[in-house]
Amino acid sequence: MLWLAAILNQWLIPYLFGNAPLGRGISAEQHMQQYEHLFSRTYKFLPPIDNHPIPDAQHVTLATLSLITLIIVTVAFIKEGKAAVRAPRPRRRGMHLGYSRGVRNGRILRGVGT
Q1: How far apart are CA 70 and CA 76, in angstroms?
Q2: Strand pairing partners for 104?
Q3: Coil vs helix vs strand at 94
Q4: What's the rounded Cα separation, in Å, for the pair 44 and 29?
Q5: φ, ψ of residue 104 in degrees (nearest 5)
Q6: Burial letters 52-65, b for 16+ CB under 10 A, else e
Q7: Do residues 100 and 111 make contact, with C-beta atoms less than 8 angstroms apart?
Q8: 0.90 cut: is pTM over it?
Q9: pLDDT tens across 60-75, in order?
Q10: DSSP at 9
Q11: Rounded CA gap, 22 and 43, in Å?
């Protein structure tokens, strides 16, 4: 979840709104200069918005996969939580005497497991 938040802060916010990522302490112009220097030769498939930095394919893929993973884990967690609330605890029959075979409903069966 932190990874997804970092990707969104570094790429999606500057792409949509044109400002520098939060917490960097630099202006949008300085951010664009750094961006051009570091990512000028990477593959980009999103359309440009004014003079905003465009996320490259690697970061778009990472953000998409991270979001899909977060959704799957959240759905599984919710389903597991509901199943745990509904499911009764299994009863352990015949284990009070220490036998795993030859005991049914608390009675020892003759001729089994001897």
Answers
A1: 10
A2: 107
A3: coil
A4: 20
A5: -135, 125
A6: bbbbbeebbeebee
A7: no
A8: no
A9: 998 999 999 999 999 9
A10: I
A11: 24
- pLDDT in 10s for each residue of the chain, 114 residues: 788 888 888 888 888 887 766 666 777 778 788 888 888 899 999 998 888 889 999 989 989 999 999 999 999 989 887 766 665 666 665 555 554 555 666 666 666 555
Pairing of strands 107-108, 103-104: antiparallel
Look up residue 49 and give its two tokens.
Answer: 């918005």
Quote the tokens at residue 19: 């400002």
Phi-psi region of 9 (alpha: psi -120 to 50; beta: other; left: phi over 0): alpha
The secondary structure element, H or E, covering residue 90 is none
Q: Which of 41, 85, 108 is nearest to 77 (CA)?
A: 85
Note the pLDDT of residue 69: 92
Strands (E), the chain: 103-104, 107-108
The length of the chain is: 114
Beta carbons within 8 Å of 32's beta carbon, 6+ residues apart:
51, 53
